[in-house]
Amino acid sequence: MVLGAARGLGHRLGPRAAACGAHGLRARFPRSRRRRGSLQGPSADADALTQKIGAKVASATASAISAPTRQSVRARLEWLMHDASVVTDELVEARYRIYADPAFMAISDRMVGELTGGGAWTLTRERLAAIACPALVLWTRQNPTMPWEVGYEASRIIPGASWYLMEDAGHWPQFEKPAEFNGVLLNFLRRL
Predict the structure, then answer these.
(1) Residue 69 placed within a domain
(2) Which residues form the domain of 68?
């Protein structure tokens, strides 16, 4: 099978996959879009901040996924949101089923470690600077997992990247402010 051009859209671990794909497979990823997520390596300050916040994220995540209950999953989701009222029973149930799945439980410790402590998917200054396709870095001011300044710094390292900071949204703006989130994404894609 021959793969033509691809587009990367990142969410959670996806921003790393999109960026690493855009860096490592430039010919296949003519466009890349990063939707906030964990970043490491843009600067020494960001590295230190990532380690500090990573420990907090790992703790909050571990309590929800080590022995998941709907209550622990709800608590984690409400922590991630700027407006906890958007955490619906349906969203809690969907995440609970993921966390309770034996296949997820088998990889969750490794995944949390990769997301919060570095590893092969770490986005370094060099990897960010080597992205050679249009990129949008969308971040939120109230994201409890990483301050917006880290995303802004990454957007300045990626050549020609677009930057957008959403107000009044936490880690999952697609749930908290779907109209704004979708509008920003569509406007970026229309310009390509």
Answers:
(1) yes
(2) 7-190
Q: What is the pLDDT of residues 155-185, one digit of tens each?
A: 999 999 999 999 999 999 999 999 999 999 9
What's the structural domain count of the chain?
1
**Does residue 81 fall inside a structural domain?**
yes
The number of CA neighbours under 13 Å toward the Cβ of 100 is 12
24-75 pLDDT, tens digit each: 544 544 554 443 334 555 566 766 776 777 777 777 777 778 889 999 999 9
Closest CA to 12 of 94, 103, 80: 80
pTM of the model: 0.72
| CATH at residue 180 | 3.40.50.1820
SS (H, E, C) the chain: CCCCCCEEECCCHHHHHHHHHHHHCCCCCCEEEEECCCCCCCCHHHHHHHHHHHHHHHHHHHHHHCCCCHHHHHHHHHHHCCCHHHCCHHHHHHHHHHHHCHHHHHHHHHHHHHHHHCCCCCCCHHHHHCCCCCEEEEEECCCCCCCHHHHHHHHHHCCCCEEEEECCCCCCHHHHCHHHHHHHHHHHHHCC
User: Does any domain span residue 1?
Assistant: no
